[in-house]
Design a protein that fits this description.
With 217 residues, this protein is α/β, with parallel strands linked by helices. The protein has nine helices and seven strands. The chain has helices at 13-24, 31-41, 44-54, 61-71, 90-98, 113-121, 161-175, 177-187, 205-216; strands spanning 2-7, 28-30, 81-84, 105-110, 123-126, 131-134, 195-200. It has a five-stranded parallel beta sheet with strand order 2-3-1-4-7, with helices on both faces. The protein has a two-stranded antiparallel ribbon with strand order 5-6. α2 crosses α3, α3 (44-54) runs antiparallel to α4 and α6 (113-121) packs antiparallel against α7. The longest helix has 15 residues, at 161-175. 24% of the residues are buried.
Length: 217
């Protein structure tokens, strides 16, 4: 099972990625983790990446693709892998295609923007413990207070409506076009092209997981 999981920030990709990886015995490949590991190990790719990171620049796609190819040679990728948060852009997807990175499925978890805004803007966190609440779906016993300690809950900057809207705009302009890219590749009849599937990401976690399984089987 070699797949890319796509979906807007807050679409529930993290929960489903964990389930898929456990179910199929495959690793979740995140470019952030890869970058940190290569920099820490002091590999040539890691040193190249560090140079760009230290100067505040973006790590070039060629360096990231190099890391992806190295990562896929490791033993835990024998049965497949799940790409999380990569590729993010068309040039990255094209570079992966040119590098011949094998893919079976591109799965999009589709959630309307307003649902994501409601989901994220309603989140409240107890910082000391990491306990999370939601003003509508999982409210604390006392509004604004942690159930256990009674301390104040906060809304993280990431969850504020204007931040969420901004992140959604970036997703729609940069990442959402990947669905079209992979669909066009599939429609061209290339045997190497992954199948593109889409499921609704609204409803209970178990319902969504059942849809994910249906799409992957």
């Amino acid at each position: 099972m070699k797949l890319i999981l796509l979906g807007a920030p807050g679409a529930g990709k993290g929960t489903q990625a964990k389930f898929i990886c456990e179910k199929f015995g495959i690793p979740q490949i995140s470019t952030g983790d890869m970058l940190r590991a290569q920099v820490k190990a002091g590999t040539p790719l890691g040193m190249e990446a560090k140079k760009h990171m230290d100067s505040g620049g973006l790590v070039p796609d060629a360096v990231i693709i190099g890391m992806v190819k190295e990562r896929l040679k490791e033993d835990d990728c024998k049965n497949g892998y799940l790409f999380d948060g990569f590729p993010r852009t068309i040039p990255q997807a094209e570079a992966m295609k040119e590098a011949g990175v094998p893919l079976d499925i591109v799965l999009e978890i589709d959630v309307p923007d307003q649902d994501i805004i409601d989901r994220m803007a309603g989140r409240r966190v107890h910082l000391a413990s990491g306990r999370t609440y939601h003003v509508t779906y999982n409210p604390p016993k006392v509004a604004g207070k942690d159930d256990v300690t009674g301390e104040d809950l906060i809304q993280r900057d990431d969850d504020k409506e204007e931040t969420v809207r901004h992140r959604l705009d970036i997703y729609h302009s940069q990442t959402k076009p990947l669905v079209t890219f992979y669909s066009n590749w599939q429609n061209a009849g290339d045997a190497q092209a992954p199948k593109v599937k889409k499921i609704a990401g609204v409803g209970g976690v178990d319902e969504i997981t059942a849809r994910v399984l249906g799409a992957l089987n």
